[in-house]
What does this fold into?
Amino acid sequence: MVSLNGKTALVTGARTGIGFGIATALVERGANVVITSRSEDKLRTAAAELGDDRALGIAGDAHDPEHQRAAVAAAIERFGSLDLLVNNVGGTERDGRRLVDTDVAAYRRTIDLNLTTALTWVQAAWHGWLGEHGGAIVNISSIASKLAVPDGTSYGTAKAAVNHFTRQMANELAPGVRVNCVEAGTVLTDFTRPNVEGREEKVVGSVPLKRIGKPADVGAAVAFLLSDDASWVTGHTLVVDGGRLLHNR
It folds into this structure.
């Protein structure tokens, strides 16, 4: 297991699901974590589960610049640094329509949530700590960025942009800050459950490793990319999908 001892990480959208799995993996490897979400009560519960001496929840709207600056400042005040950032916040408004028929306002909201929010979190972390002290960033993407599906999806388009955003940021922020990406397959969370329940046999059948992913699978990959074991890795997108992209069916 890689070591993150003495490091402080900020993980956005980490109350449940993949974000909480990432936060758990980082704490298990020695990091302190600041987790964010909109629900203060539920964040408090999540932080307690991670360990109140190692975790702090800061509630707010993910794309609110004041919330972003407050979360960065809280990490530094509580733990003395902000070494690692994980841009996990994302999502979409499911309507099942093709892109040519989709609601443009909803499309913009999806792009903002997945892409623009990642940019503004990087800006807050860079100006608050990383620019002077260095560190590492991981953005969370999805194999939806590589799959053109029949009903079209603004989510896949947004995540494809996140992949390139990762490369651009890695180039701009080197050598002091490494920036990488984890492209997740189907991981069972509240977000993916509507697409999985009742279709488990079909979903598993499309995965060569024959199981649906767990948040811990993504957490372990993120922990590696944030650690010194990946000190010569930047601008890379690591696919964590059980082999799903080996065949598109």
